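#struct-queue
[09:14] JT: dropping the first one here, sequence first, then the structure tokens:
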Amino acid sequence: MITISIANQKGGVGKSTTAASVAAEFAMRGYETLLVDGDPQANVTSHFLAPDQIGTSIADVLIESEQREKLPLEAAIVTTEMDHLDIVPSKLRFARFEKEPAIAINRLRSKLAPLASTYDFVIIDTPPTLGQILTTPLLASSHMVVPVAASPLAQDGLDDLMSTFEEVRSTNPELILLGMVCTMFDGRTAVSAESYRSLKERYGARVFETIIHRNVKLEESPAFHQPVQLYAPNSRGALLYSELTDEILKRLGARKNKGKLKLAGEETRA
């Protein structure tokens, strides 16, 4: 099981859209995928579920109380309308996780462990913060993907994020920066081109070649509780996230579509 956190402490850079879209792409290719909403704003949840469809959430699993029985992560898993894709939804109450004792940062990793044989991929959406609510998914992850908006101030704070990344690696040495993806690119403006050029100059091969352009269908799809692959499968946004997923799978050494072979390095199925 490969676990990927989608992280950036800046808000409005396309984290939730990236998490929802990549998870949907994995599922469409036959990979058993679990999408975990680790953001109290619950934006990635809204890509799949209406508020009245949410019962048990990640808050119920990770925020422990003497009055409530400790729940496994399975208790919060909801099946989506897409084959091969499940989701652990979030609620605003999850913001209280920041007040949990420091040892709580290991809870998600331990709750995910029993699911290792169930899912090929776990995608975790994270909040725009550098607190323990971000450290927790990074400790549970094998990889990190960083969306960076094509805007003048978008790269501010990346050094802080990378410092957090290195701190987590001291405890979780398996954590790898899979790559950075330029999002919200507007081809009509010079500032978007300059922002992408600056990102490439600074981070080189760590930046994915796929650029996610601004697309109205990407912005509309959460309102209909569908990822762009269902809401507008022929849109530019859907195509670009398909290309990004190709790159992600290539970097992971995995097939573009799951067949008889599982992830690279695993045994073939009978």
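[09:21] JT: and here's the second one, same format:
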Amino acid sequence: MSHVKAGGSSKNIHNNAGQRLGVKVFGGQKVNAGQVIVRQVGATKIAGPGTYVSRNFTIHADKDGVVKFVRRKIKNFTGKTTWRTQVCVE
């Protein structure tokens, strides 16, 4: 009677680099035009005046100035209002 042993599970084989997400420039700090302010997956923070969003949801400075973070209520597609942080450059 021949048989093959069970394969078992393999752990600790994933060796991927981190995505380096998060806030790169904090409130009150100076930025130049085009500089990355926030790297994110999805629109966890929204772009305000003086900023723009690239296609991977990264928020960049549109002009030179000082970064400011403001809490805002925004309306979702379903009509529910939620709090989001708006990134502004003044």
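[09:30] RK: nice, looked through the second one.
[09:31] RK: Residues 72 and 84 are 5 Å apart (CA to CA).
[09:31] JT: good to know. The longest strand covers residues 65-75.
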